[in-house]
Amino acid sequence: MDDHLPLAVIDLDGVLADVRHRLHFLESKPKDWDGFFAGIPDDPVLPEGRAVVERLAADHELVYLTGRPEATRPDTEAWLERHRLPQARLIMRRAGDRRPARVTKPALLRTYANRGRTIGVVVDDDPQVCGALESNGWPVLRADWMGRPEELERAQEDAGRT
């Protein structure tokens, strides 16, 4: 960890992890959150996301910031390692936190900014998160390479679950 490097804050779902194969769990009523999160180990890596992360790792300290719940940490860490993605601190949603991603992520980033760390870039796929971050003055790279499936949008913004 080098406190002199700017931070590159990277989202997982829709940026590095292709979650489309498990979105069908969110189409049922009630939503099958256990089934959705159980699919984490099977997520393919999005090649565009990998390329961005590898490029940023050269001159930034990486931080993975995800709306995934803390309970998924073991599967998430194993996934990152199995796919040989750069090592970085992993920040996850606290148990019971159902705030929309557009509220949760800026709040978590303020913690770093208040410690005097420079946020060099945030890479996220959620347009509402990107807008909230930009309104706080943080530079954002909008990850549009997976598209925005409606189920993922609802999970991040309405249900506050990923």
Describe this structure in words.
This protein has 162 residues and is of the alpha/beta class. The chain has one domain (7-158): HAD superfamily/HAD-like (Rossmann fold, 3-Layer(aba) Sandwich), CATH 3.40.50. The chain is 36% helix and 17% strand. A 5-stranded parallel beta sheet has the order 3-2-1-4-5. Strand 4, helix 5 (127-135) and strand 5 (140-142) form a beta-alpha-beta unit. The mean pLDDT is 88.
- CATH topology: the name is Rossmann fold
Top CATH class: Alpha Beta
Regions with little confidence, pLDDT below 50 for 5+ residues = none
Q: Please give the share of residues in helix.
A: 25-40%
What is the overall number of helices? 6
Assigned CATH architecture = 3-Layer(aba) Sandwich
Give the assembly state of these chains.
single chain
The average pLDDT score comes to 88
- Separation, N- and C-terminal Cα atoms: 26 Å
Secondary-structure element string: EHHEHEHEHEH
State the domain count: 1
> How would the global form be characterised?
globular
The CATH homologous superfamily is termed: HAD superfamily/HAD-like
Number of strands: 5
Largest sheet: number of strands, sense, barrel closure: 5 strands, parallel
Secondary-structure-derived class: alpha/beta
Relative strand content: 15-25%
Radius of gyration: 15 Å
